[in-house]
Amino acid sequence: MSDRVDRRTVFVPEGLAGERVDAAMARMFGFSRTKAADLIAQQLVQVDSVAASKSDRVSAGAMLDVTFPDETDPLEVVPEIVEGIRIIHDDDSIVVIDKPVGVAVHPSPGWSGPTVVGHLAGAGFRISTSGAKEREGIVQRLDVGTSGVMVIAKSEHSYSVLKNAFRHRTVEKTYHALVQGHPDPLSGTVDAPIGRHPRHDYKFAVMADGRHSVTHYETLEAHRFASLLQIRLETGRTHQIRVHMAALKHPCVGDTTYGADPTLTKRLGLERQWLHAMKLGFEHPESGEQVEYESSYPDDLAHALEVIRDER
């Protein structure tokens, strides 16, 4: 990334005399008044060597100094070692990792935190160049707030084979979720389409016109306030488990975005939903053997589960 800063000095032409600074900048530089106002708010604009406010009027011949900060590409992969990412398996075709909470799989607009692809680049892994630049080699995703096992393709062939396997649902994806209350029946299938929430674009919901989504669950442990479920995903929609559990009125413990009890969340010391990608099983893209990789509960989830088990 470059630290270059672009500074430009221009003189206000006769035709813009009397205009507000933000309007004059928009005309002179060809960008929006919103961007002009943003630069002014950051104190990056001076008129005749005095810091401008957006409602100031400019006079003909006034000297306008504008500093443009270097705008880094939000999709740029920044190589950096990310604490907590554990390599479960590595060969010439694939690398399987244990992703901690708080790490995104790849860069995206609005996310400035650590990423899996950034870590792999920083650790010297060569991964497939298939896929969009910021998510090369990525054949599956886990939410920032979800931990657990995931696979990344290292060769073009393995990318193609694994992408196909996920598309045709031959990959076995097993999660554990601690949900509020006790689902009835104790084991079952949720077959309900998921789409973007009509009022909150950061959320998803069961929607009649959503995408086909199927979740299978089985109760492993039932406790006073919550149940530990084993969940197998047939499809892989964004927030699928969280949305389907909330639709059953049994949201993941700690998932306040989807209606979890904030009091219980606080009591368990959770800062995210209790959801973990436990197991991933698939045909190895080179050998064709059936392989399976597992991850154990991270400390925050293990602690919360112990507290739930102890509550009578």
Automatic annotation (TrEMBL):
Residues at the catalytic site: D143
Domain of life from the UniProt record: Bacteria
Enzyme class: isomerase
Gene Ontology molecular function: any one: RNA binding
Enzyme nomenclature, EC number: 5.4.99.-
One example of a Gene Ontology biological process annotation: enzyme-directed rRNA pseudouridine synthesis
The RNA-binding S4 domain, residue ranges: 19-86
One Pfam family it belongs to: PseudoU_synth_2
UniProt keyword annotations, A-Z: Isomerase, RNA-binding
Reaction it catalyzes: a uridine in RNA = a pseudouridine in RNA
Coiled-coil blocks: none
InterPro entries reported for this sequence: PsdUridine_synth_cat_dom_sf, PsdUridine_synth_RluA-like_CS, PsdUridine_synth_RluC/D, PsdUridine_synth_RsuA/RluA, RluA_PseudoU_synthase, S4_RNA-bd, S4_RNA-bd_sf
Function according to Swiss-Prot or TrEMBL: Responsible for synthesis of pseudouridine from uracil.
Protein family (similarity comment): Belongs to the pseudouridine synthase RluA family.
Protein name, entry field: Pseudouridine synthase
Lineage start: Bacteria, Bacillati, Actinomycetota, Actinomycetes, Propionibacteriales
